[in-house]
Design goal:
The protein is α+β, with helices and mostly antiparallel strands. The chain contains 5 helices and 6 strands. The strands form 2 sheets. Strands 1-2-3 form a 3-stranded mixed β-sheet, with no helix packed on it. The protein has a 3-stranded antiparallel β-sheet with strand order 4-5-6, with helices on one face.
Length: 150
């Protein structure tokens, strides 16, 4: 039925035409406003269906929310806690226990090194930073480390 405001309505809901851009703007407004804090699919659907109606609306709302990376990041996980954390053994002497990581994607140096190998002693927190190439073999890494500490 067309009301006096010239909107096609089904009961109290505005019937939305099958225009993807229009439906997208309605979904954006309902999901991304500062006051809505990235609602989940069910809550967003309940809020929108008070005002709007279109065919297959519930599925389209669920698909829209599933594609929202912010919602995936902030939504609460409904899992049991993993349990108590197990403490790592405290090393008794320096360099008995180390951690290592690589920093890649750095601009190449004059020697064409394009990564950094980070080696950290767990006891003293002393670190070595070795400039390397991300294509080096294990032997080349060992030689670069020995050159660094000598």
């Amino acid at each position: 039925m067309i009301h006096e405001d010239w909107k096609l309505r089904l009961q109290n809901q505005v019937c939305v035409l099958a225009i993807e851009e229009l439906k997208g703007k309605i979904l954006d407004e309902g999901h991304n406003t500062p006051h809505s804090v990235h609602l989940g699919g069910n809550k967003l659907y309940k809020d929108l269906k008070r005002t709007f109606w279109w065919g297959n609306m519930k599925q389209e709302v669920a698909d829209y929310v599933a594609k929202c990376l912010t919602y995936q990041w902030v939504k609460a996980k409904h899992q049991r806690p993993a349990g108590l954390l197990q403490s790592l053994k405290i090393p008794k002497w320096k360099w008995d226990s180390v951690s290592m990581d690589f920093i890649v994607g750095v601009p190449p140096t004059q020697r064409k090194n394009n990564a950094i190998w980070v080696i950290v002693d767990r006891l003293t927190k002393m670190a070595h930073f070795v400039a390397i190439r991300n294509t080096w073999t294990l032997d080349q890494l060992a030689r670069a480390y020995l050159d660094e500490i000598v």
